[in-house]
Specification:
Elements: E1 2-7, H1 11-22, E2 27-31, E3 42-46, E4 49-52, H2 59-63, H3 65-69, E5 79-80, E6 84-89, E7 95-98, H4 102-110, H5 116-139, H6 145-167, H7 171-178, H8 182-192, H9 204-218, E8 222-223, H10 228-240, E9 244-247, E10 251-257, E11 260-266, E12 271-280, H11 284-292, H12 299-305, E13 313-321, E14 335-340, H13 344-355, E15 358-359, E16 365-369, H14 370-373, E17 383-391, E18 397-398, H15 409-426, E19 434-440, H16 442-448, E20 486-488, H17 502-540
């Protein structure tokens, strides 16, 4: 019998499986799709041209305690990095850059406004002073009691309160308090909007500050050979510990006996028992409403889960080019990631359109140059690039035309043209270099990975009201569920989206902790019975 059955082979599921296998558990991972990886998979867009089907660059992997502890480099993983981390070009020809050389970044933002260079270095030093505590708090189990105590011990109460206030600032306010020029402000703002937060929302400042600082320290690494190389290393490591992954096996339900998860049922009619735990790397609504069933859950829990909100939908395009992107801004040619937004107001307008269910007329575009970071992904002279932008989960209008959010062939082509027009403004002649264009709509993303509900990449909104103790429902904040021995191991659990493996690690450690606690109770109970029997025996001899 399996000690644990894990539903879903995304990075969270595979990290959880590795941790349990390291503890000596017999682990099996079931994956509905033909290949493992969830949103960390790559393929050939043309022979010899590798593209990332979903996620593409992994700043959080660089600092994730869960991933780093697995030593995946020992199992074939190799990281690659672009010469520059991020470029933010402007239509007037200027460009702000984020480099692993902090002085180069400082010089870049100083050119936009005197004094911002030193302000950037000060902001980076502030991050370094608290980064270990913040990463521990964000990527460790909830509540982050240890991280909070370390911050207090290191900084004192007043400074800890100041740091907490700064971390909660919206990115617009953080930029206004820290910088006077647009260059540094947009390095923060562009990174903040990797999540589904507006520049006026709390936590957007933390996301921008954290991603910019991680990029400054470690770059934005990509797996050499494609994102699937990260998944392959996780699978190889698991196999070396005796664990296994079975693809093409869709789970149809959680087997529950006397309120305890005891295994899973599969669509092919199979029943896989789990002696110790079931871990689910699937969205919270999918786990509770489809695999468990409302009738098995407390009514208040069901009511709260009805309010669970997914993050914005995603529209992605991949290209093969017959030459480098002809950026007007020369520095952008060396960057792995490019942010295309005019200014902070542009980001606010796009966020407001998304909030009102409106497809943006002038979308904020995150553009990636895969072969700049990893030249092995295409033959010499060819370039693999990609871009994504957010669109509403539920479309009510189109600020730039008459799209309805049907995302059929006509609409996807029209919106892809809109994105390319945006790119052309910064790189005239871009379209002339296109060899192949592959469009992935929100519906396509969900079809390829059921966890990406309508193209939601983060397993639920990153807004403060659905983070920490509120994720996935108020009062939970941990991987435990109302069903004993069943754990939520996906990005719908704390700490949320991103390829860091923390959600899976937290679930695995919770399962191990509960197993240890149960064993201790059993031993204590056994000792109690034995002790009582000994006392009774002595009394009978008197």
């Amino acid at each position: 019998m399996n000690d644990a059955v894990i539903v879903g082979s995304g990075p969270n599921g595979l990290v959880a499986a590795n941790i349990l296998a390291d503890a000596g558990w017999d682990v099996i991972v079931l994956e509905a799709e033909p290949d493992p990886g969830g949103a960390v998979r790559s393929a050939e867009i043309l022979p010899g041209h590798v593209y990332d089907r979903f996620s593409a660059f992994y700043p959080l992997a660089a600092v994730s305690p869960a991933l780093r502890a697995l030593s995946l480099e020992d199992h074939g993983l190799r990281w690659a990095r672009a010469p520059l981390v991020v470029a933010h070009p402007f239509l007037d020809g200027r460009c702000a850059i984020l480099s692993v050389d902090s002085l180069a970044t400082a010089a870049s933002v100083e050119a936009f406004s005197p004094g911002d260079g030193q302000a950037w270095l000060d902001l980076l030093e502030r991050w370094r002073s608290v980064s270990a505590v913040i990463i521990d708090a964000l990527l460790g189990p909830f509540p982050p009691t240890g991280a909070a105590l370390r911050l207090l011990a290191r900084s004192g109460l007043h400074e800890a309160i100041r740091t907490t206030r700064f971390a909660l600032l919206p990115v617009r306010r953080m930029a206004e308090e820290t910088f006077s020029g647009i260059g540094a402000a947009m390095l923060l703002g562009g990174n903040a909007l990797h999540a589904d937060l507006s520049p006026e929302e709390s936590l957007s400042g933390l996301f921008g500050w954290m991603l910019a600082s991680i990029g400054q320290q470690f770059g934005y690494p990509v797996p050499e050979g494609g994102s699937g190389a990260l998944t392959a290393a996780l699978v190889r490591r698991l196999a070396s510990r005796g664990g296994r992954v079975e693809c093409g096996r869709r789970v149809s339900g959680i087997e529950i006996r006397s309120g305890v998860a005891s295994g899973v049922r599969t669509e092919d009619g199979g029943l896989l028992p789990a002696r110790r735990a079931v871990l689910a790397d699937v969205s919270a609504p999918s786990l509770y409403f489809q695999l468990v069933g409302r009738e098995r859950l407390p009514s208040a829990f069901v009511d709260d889960l009805e309010h669970f909100a997914f993050d914005d939908a995603t529209f992605k395009i991949d290209w093969v080019l017959d030459g480098p992107v002809p950026w007007t801004c020369v520095e952008a040619a060396s960057a792995g990631t490019i942010h295309l937004a005019r200014d902070m107001d542009h980001l606010t307008i796009v966020a407001a359109q998304l909030a009102t269910g409106t497809i943006p007329a002038d979308p904020y575009v995150i553009f990636g140059q895969s072969t700049v970071a990893d030249p092995t992904r295409a033959p010499a002279g060819r370039h693999v690039t990609w871009a994504y932008t957010h669109v509403p989960q539920h479309v009510r209008g189109d600020a730039g035309g008459d799209l309805k959010g049907l995302w059929d062939a006509s609409e996807t082509q029209a919106f892809a043209d809109r994105i390319e027009t945006r790119i052309e403004a910064y790189a005239p002649g871009f379209r002339d270099r296109i060899v192949v264009r592959r469009i992935t709509s929100p519906y396509d993303l969900e079809d390829a990975d059921a966890n990406l509900v309508n193209g939601a990449l983060n397993g639920g909104t990153s807004a403060l009201w659905q983070q920490l103790i509120f994720r996935p429902v108020p009062g939970l904040g941990r991987p435990e569920t109302p069903i004993k021995n069943l754990y939520l191991a996906s990005a719908s659990a704390h700490p949320g989206g991103g390829v860091h493996g923390a959600c899976g690690a937290n679930a695995a450690r919770a399962a191990l902790a509960h197993e240890r606690a149960s064993r201790s109770l059993a031993i204590a109970a056994g000792l109690g019975v034995a002790g009582a029997a000994a006392i009774a025996a002595r009394r009978s001899q008197r």
